[in-house]
């Protein structure tokens, strides 16, 4: 059995590795000629960590992950800690650590595990067709590939999604802009073993430790789409949006290199319930593009990969039957993650100012139990509990 995998991002590579471990042959095709991951880093929560463990990358991941032992929220203007708590109860409950990692390093780990030389780069899919016997994919260079089934992990702007759904779906602007990057750890800004978030005015500034003595940072600001902002205006933009914020935030802004800081308008896609058409299945952002507000986008793609391989390996009524069983196991789970992220997005970014003000007030009395309970519920919904 041969699988065509479209996309060499987190979802596509996880799927290819999982399928090969389950005994399938795979070929991977990637549109770009060189992988340049979008975004500086990613938080891999224990549900995603367990998926990578199961795919044989337990030791490799630990080398890349930062030590996120604590979590804290700080007041935007005074810098005072609103709440701080240990992540240990979460780890003990779910049986694994969270690992913030640099996205480029995660991508390289996945590609190296699969075999970089086996991936066909510069292959942008233009159409797919299928028969009762298999699937053919055509690429913009005129070439084609044939397999028994096809996994479309071609991202939020998926070409193949339209083929599966029979219609186009619009990306929904979530209402805020995110700036992100990597900086050397500076403990005058935040502790080296803590996920630190400054909150106020419907905005946030957050820092997570990754390997190599670095912080992954991001700034969020509710803004209209399409503003004329770029790297040339970046520091002045952030200084304006965060005027009056605490000294650590100002030091972080001063430390930034605009050339390595990303600016992203955040979108998601309304959840839909069809991931499969015959021998073609959507996976990752192609199936369930989400905002990053609960850090589950990459983890959900890893879950897809594991469940896909499990389902194909465990059933013998044919490829189409097994892919529909994959769909059945993933539709409700991923819809829940997208909508949870959207709800958290709205609270964090002051869609309703009164709701957000109440959240800020509640943080002053937060012991960590409620925050961790929500995370644990999300994590335990994954394929490994």
Automatic annotation (TrEMBL):
Domain (FAD-binding): give its ranges. Answer: 2-338
Asked if Flavoprotein is a keyword of the record, the answer is yes
Quick check: keyword NAD in the entry? yes
What start and end residues bound the annotated signal peptide? none
The UniProt record lists the EC number as: 1.14.13.113
The reaction(s) this protein catalyses: urate + NADH + O2 + H(+) = 5-hydroxyisourate + NAD(+) + H2O
Which keywords appear in this protein's UniProt record, sorted alphabetically?
Answer: FAD, Flavoprotein, Monooxygenase, NAD, Oxidoreductase, Purine metabolism
**Highest taxon listed in the record's lineage:** Bacteria
Q: What pathway is it annotated to?
A: Purine metabolism; urate degradation
Q: Which cofactor does it need?
A: FAD
One of the GO BP terms on file = purine nucleobase metabolic process
Recorded GO MF terms: FAD binding; FAD-dependent urate hydroxylase activity; urate oxidase activity
Family designation? Belongs to the FAD-dependent urate hydroxylase family.
Q: What is this protein called?
A: FAD-dependent urate hydroxylase
**Species the sequence originates in:** Candidatus Pantoea floridensis
Q: What is the lineage of its organism?
A: Bacteria, Pseudomonadati, Pseudomonadota, Gammaproteobacteria, Enterobacterales
